[in-house]
Amino acid sequence: PLQYFTAAAPAASAEPRSSSPSRKQPERGRGPPRRRGAPLPRGSWQRQAQAASPEAEPRPSMGLQNSRRRLDSTELEMQSANYGGVGPRENGTEGMQPMPHSAEGCHGEIAESGQNGFFATVVATFKATVGPAVLYLPNGFAQAGIVGALGCLFVSFFLFVFGILRLLEAWHEVAIDGKVPQTYGGFVRLETIEDEEEDEMEIFSDRRSSKTRSPSGLAASNELSGDAEVADDGGMSLGNGLGLALDLAAAKQREAAKTVVDRLVEGGGYEGLAHLALGTWGVYAALFCSVMLQCGVCLTYYIFIAENGQMLLRHFFGISVGLRPLIVLHAVVQVFLSLPRRIETYKITNLVGSCSIIFALFIILGVACEGLADSGAANDVVALKVDTLYIFVGMAMFVFEGAAPLTIPLQEAAKPHLREKFKYIYILTQFLIVTLFSIFAALCYLNFGADINVIVTLELPKSTWPGAIVRLVYCVAVLVSYPLMLFPVTKVAVLVFGGNDDEWSGRLRNDVLRVALVSVLALIAIVEVHALDHIVALLGCLASTPLALVLPPLMHIKLVKQSRRSMFVNWATVVLGVIITVVTTVFTIRTWGSASS
């Protein structure tokens, strides 16, 4: 429509116009013909988009900008909580930027690219790592002994750091080498971009090379250079109007032709890197681990609220309710909380949850320190327990809660001058987190002894303060955090099995998928309500370990030139990660019958 074409027109130039009815704009960015498969020319906007500074960004065609902007405002505007997405620039002008994973998917939103300073980067790392795992660590210390637990925890930390360094090196190698240019915020192979550019050149060849005038006397413009021909009355030329329509149609056609894998990796980040290095199976492996981890954490939330809710009802109202009815009631509440389609909806609830968790952890730590000061350490504390040490191996990996996929968006969210130092900031922050976790778990274990419950809040005094209040606060935090934790899973489910949100039937189908996810997880929680310790261990060994120890070295092998030493260390880490995954998974499943929470 003419209104759309007029709105898309650039501002009129301040220079005086010629008296002629039309004036041909100089063609920029044009070059000799390029054969298919040849490297992109140096001046192409795809190559420039990778290295240009924010002050001098390359500019694609006006038609392509507006068609992409139109796509953003519909099905592509919402970023995936764990898997990234696409979005327009904040100022609403030209160009595209990759949207970061909300990884956090899990624990909060990561800021827009290039906005985080030092303090914000540290806080974002804390939010992306700290979760419910800290509440299960004291019981893990009882399973492994205080010395065995500390050893496993810090060995897991060093292995995690090695995987993160390999992941970042692979990312920097790809970005510096230019193998993975960013178009609309996603990862696509260079050959795909070249083929797409040639298709675009064929579609618009008549407009770019034509020197004839339109019936209205206005010359067609060079679309790919971003020049827009403006008529004397301020309107768009007929050639530009047709170009915008063709651009929009071509963009919609490309969007409709994307496969499920294309949509899964278009947010870039961890999944995009896995796709580039390992192919389709790498994407599915990364998504399997991430989705399993998210679902598992939601599963533990059901059990956590049921256990604490049972004690709260007994304390405040004097009534006794079973764990399974409380899980059903929790699922009914989460059905309504999980229906929103925008991650921005959960900003307030995420803030409430984060503040509640910090408050509760400080109170629990204060209770443990007070108990140690009054009565000393428990008599049944041991240094090492070999027979149940394997349970804590999974818990130690679960501590990081799949933070590896969030490393890339965390780095991209940092300001440019901090990105070179990001790995040091990230590693030191993770070391601080592990140290605080160790102190918290060790003090709780020393105070409450070997019979400490899997959920440490159940060990608090049964009085109103601090016991009941802390349990209530933590239940509220978990309740409002559940929808954000499940959001990445619902995005993947809707992407694979869902319909179009623009249609009534598609929205209904997507809502049914969300309700089904909440219900299935609640059903599993009802069946395994007394196996929380083994659920946590299984999540750590089967989901967190491959994300941190197996996939990053494999990506490094494929994307970075290897020396013999580097190749050996990478493969040794992969083998070690596979052994940890298989052995601890087998032992955890074999002893499932002895699980108790």
CATH architecture of the domain at 104-180 and 268-594: Orthogonal Bundle
Biggest sheet details: 2 strands, antiparallel
Mean model confidence by pLDDT: 73
Shape label: globular
Helix content: 55-70%
- Summarize the helix and strand pattern as letters: HHHEEEHHHHHHHHHHHHHHHHHHH
Strand order of the largest sheet: 1-2
Q: How widely separated are the two ends?
A: 64 Å
Tell me the structural class.
mainly alpha
Describe this structure in words.
With 597 residues, this protein is an all-alpha fold. The chain has a domain at 104-180 and 268-594: Hydantoin permease (Orthogonal Bundle), CATH 1.10.4160. Helix content is 63%, strand content 2%. The protein has helices at residues 2-7, 45-51, 62-72, 118-129, 133-144, 146-177, 190-203, 205-209, 238-256, 260-265, 269-278, 280-316, 323-337, 347-375, 389-398, 407-413, 416-419, 422-448, 464-497, 504-527, 532-559, 564-590; strands at residues 85-88, 96-99, 102-105. The protein has a two-stranded antiparallel sheet.
Question: What are the key terms here?
Answer:
disordered N terminus, mainly alpha, two-stranded antiparallel ribbon, 597 residues, 22 helices, single chain, Hydantoin permease
Compose a concise summary of this entry.
This protein is an all-alpha fold and 597 residues long.
How are the secondary structure elements laid out?
Layout: H1 2-7, H2 45-51, H3 62-72, E1 85-88, E2 96-99, E3 102-105, H4 118-129, H5 133-144, H6 146-177, H7 190-203, H8 205-209, H9 238-256, H10 260-265, H11 269-278, H12 280-316, H13 323-337, H14 347-375, H15 389-398, H16 407-413, H17 416-419, H18 422-448, H19 464-497, H20 504-527, H21 532-559, H22 564-590
Antiparallel strand pairs: 1-2
Helix pairs in contact: 3-9, 4-18, 5-6, 5-15, 5-18, 6-15, 6-18, 6-21, 11-12, 11-21, 12-13, 12-19, 12-20, 12-21, 13-20, 14-18, 14-19, 15-21, 15-22, 19-20, 21-22
Keywords: Membrane, Transmembrane, Transmembrane helix
Domain Amino acid transporter transmembrane: 268-589
Region (Disordered): 1-65, 81-103, 199-224
